[in-house]
Amino acid sequence: MHAYRTHTSGALRAADAGKPARLSGWVHAKRDHGGLLFIDLRDHYGITQCVFASGSPAFEAADRVRPESVITVTGTVVMREAGTVNPKLPTGEVELRVSEMLVQSNAEVLPMQVAGDEKFPEDIRLRYRFLDLRREKLHRNMILRSQVITSIRRRMIESGFLEYQTPILTASSPEGARDFLVPARMHPGKFYALPQAPQQFKQLLMVAGFDRYFQIAPCFRDEASRADRSPGEFYQLDFEMSYVTQEDVFATIEPVIAGVFEEFSDGRTVTKPPFPRIPYDQSMLEFGSDKPDLRNPIRIADVTEHYAGSGFGLFARIAASGGVVRAIPAPGAASQPRSFFDKLNDWAKAEGQGGLGYIVYDAEGPKGPIARNLEADRAEAIRIAAGLNAGDAVFFVAGKKDVAPKFAGTVRTRLGEELGLIEAGAFRFCWITDFPMYELNEETGQIDFSHNPFSMPQGELEALNTQDPLTIKAYQYDIVCNGIELSSGAIRNHRPDIMIRAFEIAGYTAQDVEERFGGMLNAFRYGAPPHGGSAPGIDRMVMLLADEPNIREVIVFPLNQQGEDLLMGAPAPIPPTRLKELSLKIDIPPKAKVTAG
């Protein structure tokens, strides 16, 4: 018999009754029933109930052993007595009648319980992550993550992609966040950067003639934590293709993404390819966001023209000053009590807005404070523009062009939740396309790249030379699912002349471009194929499939919100000898010294 186990703790079934077996695992739970002691033995594969009879050689040792100790038990598989079968366990028809027990490793008193669903503070969970990972839900999430990655790899290879690994130590690149820097010991005063994404390398692979590349790529960004973004590092399905249009990229990756979600959907519905394509401007208008949740049926309408010169003075003045008025439908809300509207108005004020005006449309016509001050033909025009029927209501957000549309999107989400309109049990995908190539930096007044600086502008060099930069669209696109951005992607700028001009508009000289991106730019001078790709986030995909609201629940060893690894004690001070070796001196700002102390 094997030294540790003949079966896993999830393997025994009724067909094994009467056979000898040896199991090893953790003491999940103990129950003392007088003359009998029960231990639920857990390993990666499942749980088996083990029975110790009073007076047996193993009983006393079993009585003393603490939860989460690792033990090996040997005995005979028997059927459970009638009425004690556990249908929730695959092993629930049988139990192991133990004759021998060996303690492999004693557990100390636990800082957090593994069995049960008790909630523990995040700092405890992260400091003792190895215990947290033993808990059923988190353990299941990590198995799901592994299975999702395996499925992605298989599907990408079947689609003709080959996997290549790109460098981790590289040069800094403007990807929209801060780099993590690594001092170069052999080059004093110089630093490597951890890649924010393998952007330049995957493009270089296309120039090198590999045609279809993918990688489950680690990416590193020194940025703040969010519910859907882990600080420090994350993983993405990075891929690139040569000789492709935007539609080619969509047609290639949609079956992979949809297939993975269907495989692990557990009965939830998934958008069938082709996914809807929504231009950026339309998305900002109808959803107030470039990450629309299509499970919410509400569509926002622009009603600025219907308030311009109207009898409702507040909105008329906003329209006259160049602002906008957005209408957010509330289907069926006419039957809601006045308190429903007052609550939403108070919520809007708490969000820093002036409030939420509204009109209720019933069988007799428009009602409410705004309707009393608005001409009947304008109220009717608003009803038609917002697609309303009798029994519906509509809320309004008015203000500056760069503020009101986004808050209208927040109101849309809130109304969808309040009215129970969000489609349950569904993954709704779409592409957001035609992003602006540039945007205006409000702080500096300068033109910046709005998305990926390596994207091909629509209209190419002619557009860069003849159009207002703020009107130029790019071949850039995002995959969005249930209001969460899974990836950004683009058809790349593969021509040196277009690249230098694109960066010139954003304030970079040709010399700047040569210094910062010389490797890729030089490669383009030796024959670069048109190419494009994208990079869906692995962590976010698993978060959606696991139905977890926080991305840390699907990462094995995540950092906390402050970017700290409480388990391993990182980041940590470096001894003076190492600093000297790296030609570094530490100069901590006074405020940071106080915080650190």
Task: Give the secondary structure arrangement, pairings included.
Elements: E1 20-33, E2 36-43, E3 46-53, H1 59-64, E4 70-79, E5 94-105, H2 122-127, H3 129-132, H4 136-158, E6 162-163, E7 181-183, E8 191-193, H5 199-207, E9 212-221, E10 232-242, H6 246-263, E11 269-270, E12 277-279, H7 280-286, E13 301-302, H8 304-307, H9 313-320, E14 324-330, H10 338-350, E15 357-362, E16 365-367, H11 369-372, H12 376-385, E17 393-399, H13 404-418, E18 426-427, E19 429-433, E20 438-440, E21 447-449, H14 460-466, E22 476-481, E23 484-491, H15 496-505, H16 510-524, E24 531-534, H17 538-545, H18 576-581, H19 590-596
Parallel strand pairs: 3-5, 6-9, 11-18, 12-19
Antiparallel strand pairs: 1-2, 1-4, 2-3, 4-5, 7-8, 9-10, 10-24, 13-14, 14-17, 15-16, 15-17, 19-22, 20-21, 22-23, 23-24
Helix pairs in contact: 4-6, 4-17, 5-16, 14-15, 15-16
Mean pLDDT: 95
For the record, give the distance between the C-alpha atoms at the N and C termini, rounded to a whole number: 57 Å
* Overall SS class: alpha+beta
The parts where pLDDT drops under 50 for at least 5 residues are none
- Please outline the major beta sheet: 8 strands, mixed
Q: How much of the sequence is in beta strands?
A: 15-25%
